[in-house]
């Protein structure tokens, strides 16, 4: 039992999952989260491949499955609501665009928090201000709490990680914008369709709806764009951008936009990927989107976070807290898996956001072909098997 203290920045998915494992191995984790409480919102996220084994070892598989969103698949619809092609969940054995385990991000974050809150210290409404490393620890100052020392620090604070900025340098060196933006928010409209619906409009725009676990409609908007001059905290400005960009789009767009001002969980960000040569510097390591954000296009972000948390904690335990050994092994074990997870499926941004009516029509045709019986196997191998293939090591106490 190492009893070492670890400060984790970020109570999203990766942070609480790491705290879960560290506590099991005898470390003393503290999680600091900038938001005043758990952040609600986000749409259904996928738990794929190796990550399913991780939630099994956490003993959470049954509870996660009990909270799954029952989606039947994904379909593209025209402006009048007519379906142009469907991708049912069963067509790809639960590993297609809609996976077998789809849980609302907010539900998963809450479950991980509830599972750890009794043993793990959580500091909400705070953020790391400075990190100063010396021979035997890291001195941390916070925006609100008094300064403290920790043996190790892990940044699990998302694509715009402050920990990464402090330990590795500015975001522009690591975040690669993919040339598009996305927004999610919940609406009060009922939805018992069971389908994830998407409507593409020319100009690289898409509007979507997904049913939530409690039978309501969650809205999704994405659009191609060069970097926008709107601050990440300027929610009113972001809402304005969406309303303007989608003013002429048909289907349910007007109705969904009408619900935007009252949504309690509006989320807006660029599509980006984080690429780093190293995930640690001294006693500070990065995990999850902070280290390797694959972008929501891949459907791999949550799975990679769960697998990464398992490996990072396991290697720290196996090395009895020696971060030099553990961080190196963590990277060696995970690099290739992350590289595969970052591959963009199906033509990347232009496949998801075709520019013209012709491109939309062509995409629908190729989607129909991919979903046809003869090509299903090939499609599944080419696009959706990236989450498999990592044999999870065993650590003392990992089961
Ligand atoms: C509100 C929200 C909604 C999302 N919705 C979706 C979705 O619908 N589909 C999808 O594919 N992905 C979504 N994501 C991203 C998805 O959660 C991640 O790709 C994936 O689960 C990896 O999780 P993570 O823990 O590394 O990062 P995140 O889930 O992004 O969590 C990072 C956490 O760090 C916190 N944080 C940020 N800065 C600081 C700071 N300075 N100090 C302390 N804490 C900080 C954030 O508030 C957040 O709670 C969403 C993320 C968020 C935050």
Automatic annotation (TrEMBL):
It holds the Pfam family FAD_binding_3. SUPFAM superfamilies: FAD/NAD(P)-binding domain (SSF51905). InterPro entries: FAD-bd, FAD/NAD-bd_sf, FAD_aromatic-hydroxylase. Residues 5-319 form the FAD-binding domain. It comes from Micromonospora globispora. Signal peptide: none annotated. This is FAD-binding monooxygenase. GO terms for molecular function: FAD binding; monooxygenase activity. Keywords: Monooxygenase, Oxidoreductase.
């Amino acid at each position: 039992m190492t009893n070492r203290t670890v400060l984790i920045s970020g109570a999203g998915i990766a942070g609480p999952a790491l705290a879960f494992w560290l506590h099991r191995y005898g470390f003393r984790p503290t999680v600091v989260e900038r938001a005043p409480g758990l952040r609600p919102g986000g749409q259904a996220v996928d738990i794929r491949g190796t990550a399913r084994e991780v939630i099994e070892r956490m003993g959470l598989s049954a509870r996660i499955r009990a909270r799954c969103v029952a989606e039947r698949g994904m379909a593209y619809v025209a402006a009048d609501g007519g379906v142009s092609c469907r991708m049912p969940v069963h067509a790809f054995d639960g590993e297609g665009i809609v996976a077998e385990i789809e849980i609302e991000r907010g539900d998963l974050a809450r479950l991980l928090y509830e599972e750890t809150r009794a043993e793990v210290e959580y500091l909400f409404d705070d953020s790391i201000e400075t990190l100063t490393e010396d021979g035997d620890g890291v001195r941390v100052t916070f925006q609100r709490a008094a300064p403290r020392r920790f043996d190790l620090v892990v940044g699990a604070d998302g694509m715009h990680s402050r920990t990464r900025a402090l330990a590795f340098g500015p975001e522009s060196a690591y975040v690669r914008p993919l040339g598009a933006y996305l927004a999610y928010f919940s609406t009060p409209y009922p939805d018992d369709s069971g389908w994830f619906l998407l409507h593409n409009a020319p100009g690289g725009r898409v509007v979507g709806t997904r049913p939530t676990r409690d039978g309501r409609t969650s809205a999704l908007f994405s659009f191609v764009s060069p970097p926008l001059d709107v601050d990440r905290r300027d929610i009113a400005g972001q809402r304005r951008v969406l309303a303007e960009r989608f003013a002429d789009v048909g289907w349910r767009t007007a109705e969904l936009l009408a619900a935007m001002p009252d949504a309690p969980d509006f989320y807006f960000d660029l599509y980006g990927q984080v690429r780093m040569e190293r995930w640690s510097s001294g006693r500070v390591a990065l995990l999850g989107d902070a280290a390797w954000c694959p972008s929501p296009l891949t459907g791999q972000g949550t799975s990679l976070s769960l697998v990464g948390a398992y490996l990072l904690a396991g290697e720290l335990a196996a090395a009895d807290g020696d971060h030099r050994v553990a961080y190196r092994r963590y990277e060696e074990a995970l690099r290739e898996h992350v590289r595969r997870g970052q591959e963009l499926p199906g033509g990347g941004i232009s496949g998801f956001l075709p520019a013209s009516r012709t491109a939309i029509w062509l995409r629908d045709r190729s989607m129909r072909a991919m979903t046809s019986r003869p090509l299903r196997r090939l499609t599944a191998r080419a696009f959706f098997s990236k989450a498999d293939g990592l044999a999870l090591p065993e650590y003392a106490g990992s089961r």
